[in-house]
Amino acid sequence: MSEIIPFPKLRKQLVNEINKSMSDGQFDKAYDAFEVYEQHFEMNEDLSIKKCEVLKECGHYLELREEASILLGQGHDQYDQIIIYFVESLYYLEQHQTVVEIINQINDEDIEHKTRMKLLPIQDMARDKLEQRKRKASDILSAFKEEQFENQIQLLIDLIDNHLGIFNLTLAQIIENESLHPNVQSLILEYLRLGDWTNKVTFAKLDENITTIPSELDGIERTHFNKIIIPKVIEQLEIDSPSSIELANTLLNQHAIVMYPIEHKSLKDEDLIACYLKLLAERFNIDANYKCVNQEDWEQFFDFIQKL
Question: Which domain of life is it from (predicted)?
Fold first, then answer.
């Protein structure tokens, strides 16, 4: 078959359509024209900048962030304009802390004064948004125990993303003095760890009394359970029941979060893996012959996971 050659005048027609649509404020139409253009032709720097403007006007901020990031990595001459688009995309995606940090870094670079003056108001707005969220967080933390579980989780995720270290003392007091869901306790520990809280915290979790220094913890994703046990279980399921892997991963990750920072020290790794394989085989109807589990180990294991 002969190679399909685009209509010779298509490039010019599409460029004209893009320019006219942008001039008329029809940015959705310009976006569609860009879609067709990129199917046939390479983008030049001028069109790349125009596409960023179109993405911004259409509200496609995630795509704008990706596009601007690629252009920055390619080292385009119009760095100042592209960095503005990149920062604007982060702001509209509500990544306010990242906006503040990036503009602080950019201010140390040799950029044009007009670029700096366009970035500073964005930084001011991002800081204001952070202050608003900080005040809201403070209000919620003052009555944290009365909040719904989902609200507690969402607040802690926001604090980890945007306000590390600010509420260390408050959250240390909450985890020590309030009766909380284990998932909430785990996220508080992560916040304190990432916020470099070096004081001891003592609290009850899953019928155990725990005393730990958050800054010395490895983090949920780097526990022995996450690094060793889960991969070994999944490795076996890849052989016996690949279709069960997604459900198994969900369950195992849930357990990892709920348990943190507790580890199954009373069971050897091979016995714990065998117990989990037996559990998953029963729950997901996996037809496989796994290592025989000692009844005493199984009862100990099952008693523990009943608390999760």
Answer: Bacteria
